Amino acid sequence: MPKPSSRISRIVPSGKDGWEVHFTAMTRHQAGEDIIMLSVGDHDFDTPSETVEACVSAVRGGYHHYTQLPGIPRLREAMARVSTQCTGVATSADEVIATPGGQQALYAAAQAVLDPGDHAIVVAPYYATYPGTFRAAGASFTVVEARAEDGFQPRAEDIAAAITPQTRALLINTPNNPTGAVYSRATLDGIAEICRTHDLWLFSDEVYWTLGGGEHVSPRALPGMAERTLVINSMSKSHGMTGWRIGWLTGPRDLIALLVNLNLVTTYGLTDFVSRAAVAALENAYGVKEIAERYAARRTVFLDAICGLNNVTVRGSEGGMYVMLDISRIEPDCEKFAWALLEGEKLAVMPGSSFGEAASGHIRISLCQPEPVLTEAALRIRRFAATYR
Ligand code: PLP
User: Fold this and answer.
1) Which residue did the predictor score with more confidence, 256 or 127?
2) Nearest CA owner, ligand 1 atom 2
3) What residue ranges define each of the domains in the chain, with the CATH number in brackets?
4) Does residue 232 contact residue 105 with C-beta atoms inside 8 Å?
5) pLDDT higher than threshold 80 for residue 12
6) What is the pLDDT of residue 162?
7) What is the pLDDT of residue 16?
8) Average pLDDT, the chain
9) Prediction ipTM score
10) Contact 283, 80 (CB under 8 A)
């Protein structure tokens, strides 16, 4: 075949070998082995039936056609209302653009403000697609590690030290995947100060905002930030709609207007009947409270069951869908620990090293299983830790 572009060849996932634990476990699980899968980041339950019904009636009602490029008007209005709740900043429909999932919103953000040769900063531990998203825009990036001892809250001085004359953007994610850390107001104030001082765009990935436990604070609401913040939202986690591929980007209306052209040449708008179902789900908040309560209960059950375990420390783990355990006093090599846990106890978790240096020495537990399974998983970790050598 003729040579592919160098750009497409550079978009490799960031994952290190730790992902092998997950893929191996998944293959064996699918082949029928009784493995508890706590390495995945997808719900174990289906989309709320009201949303499914709204979609079915949209399909039956003839919503089969092309839609407006930035999203159908009623969808943008519904998204803007949710953005107002999420960010605390009054948002109008022309400040949001609908995308097929939060990932496309991230891609759009990077394409919208980064030129080849520009530099970005990404806070780690991070979601695995972030580096590839910057590479797809031709930008270089520096990883700034939020430290485990700070509960994975990034330090402003660490971010400031990574800034170069080419730096145009900073990417953060709160509540965080993989750590479950929810950034404090002080952390966000520090980040906002840096963005204002150095005239940076802030990409704020808030796809887990409904799963934060307490009141969500968005950096978009901080002084001088609405004009430079691009918020990534998604219905995947909040509304139980991972496979529906629906999300949106919120930002200054002039930038959003430019992004309509990106939709023109990439997605050409969203699926018609999915858009109608999304309107119903957003307007009625189908499943949002129940899903948030379910994850909060699961987090409590798991943390209670693991509480007091010798040589294991819980870090972050305040929100989102994950819990981070520092197991470095048992085994400094978290990948080795995860493999041994899979072999010895048939429990699949992600080694923290797959998400950046700061999370090495940790394992990430996904809460995407019912409470009794999480209790059983905690028991297996206890038994494993007691006998590990
Ligand atoms: N951002 C974070 C932090 C995530 O964890 C995910 C998915 O797991 C996404 C963005 C992308 O979500 P989606 O494209 O399903 O909306």
Assistant:
1) 256
2) 127
3) 6-46+288-384 (3.90.1150.10), 49-284 (3.40.640.10)
4) yes
5) no
6) 98
7) 54
8) 95
9) 0.99
10) no
pTM of this structure: 0.96
In the block, tokens 């429990």 appear at 347
SS3 of residue 300 by DSSP: helix
388 C-alpha vs ligand 1 centroid, how far in Å?
34
Backbone dihedral angles phi then psi of residue 36, each to the nearest 5 degrees? -80, 120
Residue 205 CA: which ligand 1 atom is closest? 1
13 has a pLDDT exceeding 70: no
Mutate which of 103, 238, 321, 322 for ligand 1? The one with the most ligand atoms within 8 Å of its CB, which is 103
Are the beta carbons of 348 and 22 closer than 8 angstroms? yes
pLDDT confidence of residue 356: 83
Considering only CA atoms, which residue is closest to atom 8 of ligand 1? Answer: 41
Q: Residues 316, 154: contact at Cβ < 8 Å?
A: no
What is the token pair recorded at 60? 């039956």
CA quadruple 241, 244, 250, 255: dihedral, nearest 10: 170
CA 270/CA 263 separation, integer angstroms: 9
In sequence order, the β-bridge partners of residue 144 are 123
With a cut of 80, say whether residue 125 has pLDDT above it.
yes
Helix/strand number for the chain, H first, E second: 13, 13
The arithmetic mean of pLDDT across residues 346-361, rounded, is 92
Q: Angle at the Cα of 230 (from 224 to 234), degrees rounded to 5?
A: 135
* Segment holding 279, helix H or strand E: helix 272-284
Contact predicate 230/204, CB 8 Å? yes
What confidence tens digit (pLDDT) does each residue in 233-254 have? 999 999 999 999 999 999 999 9
The identity of residue 164, as a single letter, is T
Is the CB of 127 within 6 Å of ligand 1? yes
**Token pair listed for 20:** 């092998």
Q: What is the pLDDT of residue 14?
A: 58
